[in-house]
Amino acid sequence: MSNQTWPIILNFIASLLGAVGQWLYKLGAKDLKEIPIYKNLPFLGGMFSFLIVMGLFMVAFRLGGRISVTFPVYALTFVWGTMIGVFVDKEPFNSMQALGVGLVFVGVAIVGGMATR
């Protein structure tokens, strides 16, 4: 196992939590006029999610993660966010979006694969 493996895994987990955090912000934003921020549970959940994301970044860097290797893995947040939008919120999804998602996966695989050699 490469010395970048755990930092990559931590950034992968952070990417999932980051997408969930964005989705929670979206849910919370719908009620901002009716519910104050301090009572808006989806908004607070999004904030908590990003606190965990920042903690995962810190641990990854503490383990020797290189930002040029680990941070591109966090780009998967865009993929997970797209999937949440499509499957949970029933947003439309077209072939150009599919191409973009595929390219993000390819890029992350290349960066991660090169780092673990």
UniProtKB/TrEMBL annotation:
UniProt keyword Phosphoprotein, yes or no: no
InterPro entries linked: EmrE-like
Keywords recorded for this protein, A-Z: Membrane, Transmembrane, Transmembrane helix
Record bears the keyword Magnesium: no
Domain of life: Bacteria
Transmembrane segments: 6-25, 37-61, 67-88, 95-115
Annotated protein name in UniProt: Small multidrug resistance protein
Organism of provenance: Peredibacter starrii
Lineage: Bacteria, Pseudomonadati, Bdellovibrionota, Bacteriovoracia, Bacteriovoracales
